[in-house]
Amino acid sequence: MTTAQLLALDTIVLALVAGCWLGGGVAAVLAGRDRSPRTARIAAGLVVAALVCTALRVALTVGLAGAGWWFAADKLLLALPLVVVPGLVAAVISLPRLVRLAPGGAAVAGPILIAGYGGLGGVAAALTVSYPVSPVAAGVITGLVAGASVPTWRTLSGHPPSRRWSAAGGTAVLCFAVVWAGGAVWSSRLPDRLNLGAHHGSGAVAVPGHSGTGAPPGRQVSVTDLRESAATERPARSFTLTARPADITLASGRVVRAWTFDGRVPGPTVRVRQGELVEVRLRNQMPDLAVTLHWHGYHVPAGDDGVAGVTQDAVRPGGEFVYRFRATDPGSYWYHSHDMANPAVRMGLFGMFVVDPVDPVDPVDPAGTGGAAGDKDATGRTALSDHTVVLHTLGVAGTVAVDDQAPADGLARLRVAPGTPVRLRVAATDNVPRTLGLSGVPYRLTAVDGRDLTRPGRLDDRRLRLAAGGRYDLTFTMPSRPVLLSVDGRDDLGLLMTGGEGAAPPPARGPVLDITSYGQAAPPSTGPFDREITWVLDRRFALLDGVPMLAHTVNGRVWPDIETPVVREGQLIKITVVNRGRDTHPMHPHGHHVLVLSRNGRPVTTGPLWMDTLDVGPGEVWEVALRADNPGIWMSHCHDLSHASLGMTFHLAYEGVTTPFDAGRASGNHPE
Ligand code: C2O
Ligand code: CU
């Protein structure tokens, strides 16, 4: 069984445990009162069922512990003791007496009911406790179970607590609850001003003799100084992107109201050549929305990362901001607004960013053995047919936008001469992953998140799962028959490429490629690590800005209370990402790629797998390595941006880096 299945089963069993013990307890009370053998038998039956379910929960927990302590700690330390201890007493004392039809007294019904309270405590733990186990939550739940058990026991043994005691106890509990909840709500409110450059008490120490931020040891540098310094050099490429609302006409004629760059969704592709100094002027003509430009996956200097309240103030209506950075790395990336990113991206404030390599290798035929028959370019190489393909839901319509054409809410079409090498740069810009299929031709997954793989093998009819926010480059040589890039297995959503004759092939149906074992490379050997960080992802009740909700948590906490790792330039950091929940979390650290080391304990054999958006499924454990080579304050968050806005946002800070910008209620900046 997979960890995800164990977790799902555990959720069901958890409810059964509480239900059977409580039902058994009530039946035992009734049996004691009316001395009915039938009720005693029902009670005995429920106790047996409860024991079976409890044993099953113990077994599931052992299984989960095998997958990692993160999955089992809350159960072993809290939920199970609350039910197992009274449950064992019930099995030894209550059950035999129920079976002998001698059900009277506290000794029979008491342990069963108390096990029921313990079972309820287990349900509460599942809803409120994550990893690491919070001692406060554990104490409150244990206290509630004990607080309910004592009067129950006394009542069953014929000494119910006096009215005075009940009233006093009730009032005390109520007062405590009101004060505690009120305090928690108050302290969880987002402060008016929140400065992410202040890493007090997070263990930052200046290291003598080394500081790559340009600041002497112990000194500080602001993100605003971490910008492309060659201010005198004229940028090789300049772009202007204007944010404004517009009506977008989809290929079917349907019109969607959108927030756009330059009146288009996706916004104009920013395409440059490797090594060029790029300048992008952002103008905001939205009537009442602040915007920024974040370069997703690109290692820009921190000051150009475009995160409102961290690396700049959000650009207000009528304002502008100029981004400037050198396009050092080639590949497929995208840009999007990063102030209230969830609605902004959903509504259309994004576009592709492509950096062409200085010295392109033929992606279809890296060894250069020839064989292609399309047009030759000036260098005699067969001209590459190179396209961006953006998958996004506009309004309710799934769309496919090819290059800078209007998005198709169906099949986009391209004509490609047979024999032409093709590169498709596919980006998934929604909050959910997409399943891609390429049929009609064997192909290669040439690049992941902008990074070329060394020896991508040939794929036939295989499907690919692309993370929300991730990019895959697919390459192949155009055959004489049509080729179909299908989205989520549909034959009516995707890209149909035609050159010669023939009907469209059906969508690919083959197995989904495991991108962590795409090749036979030796597993990456990195380390020793200077630092190890764990992100345990979960969903539980939490207070977010004073509002109780089922939030998305990291290490049991929500934005802005998730602990900030403070790293030092040059450090090699191992990050273990654990998904305890039932949602997929495409985790995205800004400003860095991470080298994927292993998934679910299996070392990666893809030669090398660098990613900026990790598709961490339920129950999965990813180990990745991050080289701290880009000083700054870097957001890290789930790229299901609805999760990011419900708590799953945090950041990674470099020692000594400060920011003059604030997030928070009064700041007007909403990085999450
Ligand atoms: Cu595309 Cu903060 O992310
Ligand atoms: Cu998520």
TrEMBL record:
<dbReference type="InterPro" id="IPR008972">
    <property type="entry name" value="Cupredoxin"/>
</dbReference>
<feature type="transmembrane region" description="Helical">
    <location>
        <begin position="12"/>
        <end position="31"/>
    </location>
</feature>
<feature type="transmembrane region" description="Helical">
    <location>
        <begin position="76"/>
        <end position="95"/>
    </location>
</feature>
<keyword id="KW-0472">Membrane</keyword>
<feature type="transmembrane region" description="Helical">
    <location>
        <begin position="133"/>
        <end position="153"/>
    </location>
</feature>
<feature type="binding site" description="type 1 copper site">
    <location>
        <position position="299"/>
    </location>
    <ligand>
        <name>Cu cation</name>
    </ligand>
</feature>
<feature type="transmembrane region" description="Helical">
    <location>
        <begin position="165"/>
        <end position="186"/>
    </location>
</feature>
<comment type="subunit">
    <text>Homotrimer.</text>
</comment>
<dbReference type="GO" id="GO:0051301">
    <property type="term" value="P:cell division"/>
</dbReference>
<keyword id="KW-0560">Oxidoreductase</keyword>
<keyword id="KW-0946">Virion</keyword>
<dbReference type="GO" id="GO:0050421">
    <property type="term" value="F:nitrite reductase (NO-forming) activity"/>
</dbReference>
<feature type="domain" description="Plastocyanin-like">
    <location>
        <begin position="248"/>
        <end position="357"/>
    </location>
</feature>
<comment type="similarity">
    <text>Belongs to the multicopper oxidase family.</text>
</comment>
<keyword id="KW-0167">Capsid protein</keyword>
<dbReference type="InterPro" id="IPR011706">
    <property type="entry name" value="Cu-oxidase_C"/>
</dbReference>
<dbReference type="InterPro" id="IPR001287">
    <property type="entry name" value="NO2-reductase_Cu"/>
</dbReference>
<keyword id="KW-0677">Repeat</keyword>
<keyword id="KW-0186">Copper</keyword>
<keyword id="KW-0812">Transmembrane</keyword>
<dbReference type="InterPro" id="IPR045087">
    <property type="entry name" value="Cu-oxidase_fam"/>
</dbReference>
<dbReference type="Pfam" id="PF07732">
    <property type="entry name" value="Cu-oxidase_3"/>
</dbReference>
<feature type="domain" description="Plastocyanin-like">
    <location>
        <begin position="541"/>
        <end position="652"/>
    </location>
</feature>
<keyword id="KW-1133">Transmembrane helix</keyword>
<feature type="binding site" description="type 1 copper site">
    <location>
        <position position="336"/>
    </location>
    <ligand>
        <name>Cu cation</name>
    </ligand>
</feature>
<keyword id="KW-0132">Cell division</keyword>
<protein>
    <recommendedName>
        <fullName>Copper-containing nitrite reductase</fullName>
        <ecNumber>1.7.2.1</ecNumber>
    </recommendedName>
</protein>
<dbReference type="Pfam" id="PF07731">
    <property type="entry name" value="Cu-oxidase_2"/>
</dbReference>
<feature type="transmembrane region" description="Helical">
    <location>
        <begin position="43"/>
        <end position="70"/>
    </location>
</feature>
<dbReference type="InterPro" id="IPR011707">
    <property type="entry name" value="Cu-oxidase-like_N"/>
</dbReference>
<keyword id="KW-0479">Metal-binding</keyword>
<dbReference type="GO" id="GO:0005507">
    <property type="term" value="F:copper ion binding"/>
</dbReference>
<dbReference type="InterPro" id="IPR002355">
    <property type="entry name" value="Cu_oxidase_Cu_BS"/>
</dbReference>
<feature type="transmembrane region" description="Helical">
    <location>
        <begin position="107"/>
        <end position="127"/>
    </location>
</feature>
<keyword id="KW-0131">Cell cycle</keyword>
<feature type="binding site" description="type 1 copper site">
    <location>
        <position position="294"/>
    </location>
    <ligand>
        <name>Cu cation</name>
    </ligand>
</feature>
